[in-house]
Amino acid sequence: MAKTGSQMPDVFEALCTAAIQKVQRFNAQDLANTLWAMAKTGMQMPDVFEALCAEASRKVQDFNAQGLANTL
Question: Which tens digit of pLDDT belongs to each residue from 4-27?
């Protein structure tokens, strides 16, 4: 959705809800990609953003340079 520019709030919310439930299983690239997509769409879901950031902070040593750049 982020690359296409389409706005589908119901789908985005469902995906974000699933992401929160599975965030502990995300690897560094999953986290970077998801945070990038959230930023790109401009959709505001603070609870999801905070959960992803907290998990990224726990796994920061696993990020490569590209993942760090995409996340910031």
Answer: 556 678 888 899 999 999 999 999
Distance between CA atoms of residues 13 and 44, nearest Å = 10
CA distances from 5 to 2, 9, 37 (A): 5, 12, 10
CA 70 → CA 14, 16, 30, 34, distances in Å? 23, 18, 11, 10
> In the predicted model, is pLDDT for residue 35 greater than 70?
yes
45 close to 34: Cβ distance less than 8 angstroms: no
Residues in contact with 57: Cβ distance below 8 Å, sequence separation at least 6, in sequence order? none
Q: What is the pTM of this model?
A: 0.82
